[in-house]
């Protein structure tokens, strides 16, 4: 949450958006959205850009559109990985407080308010968050739902819901603890303090920090393109077994990984990949 508690933007955050590397989604039926931009800027890569003025405050309509676009890419055989990004000023500066300020407990509980946000985690293809500017509250939670986080130099993370008299509601307390440990997560959630891109990388939340916002998005697209060049079944299995480590203990996780590893020997891609390695040729993946 917390769009209203972001710190004032400095001069370097004035740019309203990062140049969007867009070409039409040739593999998908064109669809118009109000709060997001959707494109396929590279082979096998889907890009979703949050596009709600001024700081990409998250609300139900935006998240519904995001989920719809994610499912479309997930269902497309032409897409192997997905990048979610925002503007240079804000990836997403928090949830739209006006949408929730007058909710009662019974209303929020009855309709399971913001449950649909977690649909992002149901996507089977790898999702990369390219974060520039503010990723606060719900924006931080959305970034943490991705499989990989890349940061630009101005990226700022935080869970400042305590300043509104509430707590993170879309998984922030759970995912932050697993990413950076209880002590740091507890301090950040109880104080509402923010942390930088460099700290996110040092603590293990982010994979990389780039020199400019543009390089952050380009880096995410490059990694997504690399991933999409591998066999779809192996990529799906790899994401699945890594995520399983969050759900079970070590011994059960290792056993689960081994069973999925065994299962891949029934696929054509395994035969193709190993034969290509032995024969020193380039594999032609079929996703079967």
TrEMBL record:
One of its GO terms (cellular component) is mitochondrion. InterPro entries: ClpP/crotonase-like_dom_sf, Enoyl-CoA_hyd/isom_CS, Enoyl-CoA_hydra/iso, Enoyl-CoA_hydra_C. Pfam families: ECH_1 (PF00378). Keywords: Fatty acid metabolism, Lipid metabolism, Lyase. It comes from the Eukaryota. Its EC number is 4.2.1.17. The keyword Lipid metabolism applies. Belongs to the enoyl-CoA hydratase/isomerase family. It comes from Tuber magnatum (white Piedmont truffle). One of its GO terms (molecular function) is enoyl-CoA hydratase activity. The keyword Lyase applies. The lineage of its organism: Eukaryota, Fungi, Dikarya, Ascomycota, Pezizomycotina. PANTHER family: ENOYL-COA HYDRATASE, MITOCHONDRIAL (PTHR11941:SF54), ENOYL-COA HYDRATASE-RELATED (PTHR11941). This is Probable enoyl-CoA hydratase, mitochondrial. GO terms for biological process: fatty acid beta-oxidation. Gene3D superfamilies: 2-enoyl-CoA Hydratase, Chain A, domain 1, Lyase 2-enoyl-coa Hydratase, Chain A, domain 2.
């Amino acid at each position: 949450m917390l769009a209203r508690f972001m710190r004032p933007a400095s001069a370097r955050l004035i740019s309203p958006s990062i140049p969007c590397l867009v070409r039409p989604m040739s593999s998908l039926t064109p669809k118009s959205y109000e709060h997001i931009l959707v494109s396929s800027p590279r082979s096998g890569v889907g890009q979703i850009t949050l596009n709600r003025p001024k700081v990409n405050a998250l609300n139900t309509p935006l998240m519904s559109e995001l989920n719809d676009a994610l499912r479309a890419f997930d269902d497309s055989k032409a897409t192997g990985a997905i990048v979610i990004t925002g503007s240079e000023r804000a990836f997403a500066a928090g949830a739209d407080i006006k949408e929730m300020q007058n909710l009662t407990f019974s209303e929020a509980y009855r309709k399971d308010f913001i449950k649909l946000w977690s649909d992002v985690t149901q996507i089977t293809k790898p999702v990369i968050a390219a974060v520039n500017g503010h990723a606060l509250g719900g924006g931080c939670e959305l970034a943490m739902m991705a499989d990989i986080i890349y940061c630009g130099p101005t990226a700022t993370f935080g869970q400042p819901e305590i300043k509104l008299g509430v707590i993170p509601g879309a998984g922030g307390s759970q995912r932050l603890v697993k990413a950076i440990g209880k002590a740091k997560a507890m301090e950040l959630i109880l104080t509402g303090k923010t942390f930088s891109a460099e700290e996110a990388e040092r603590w293990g939340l982010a994979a990389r920090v780039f020199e400019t916002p543009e390089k952050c998005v380009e880096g995410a697209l490059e990694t997504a393109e690399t991933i999409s060049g591998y066999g779809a079944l192996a990529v799906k299995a790899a994401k699945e077994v890594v995520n399983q480590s969050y759900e079970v203990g070590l011994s059960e996780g290792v056993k689960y990984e081994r069973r999925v590893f065994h299962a891949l020997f029934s696929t054509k891609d395994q035969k193709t990949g190993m034969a290509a390695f032995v024969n020193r040729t380039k594999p032609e993946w079929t996703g079967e």
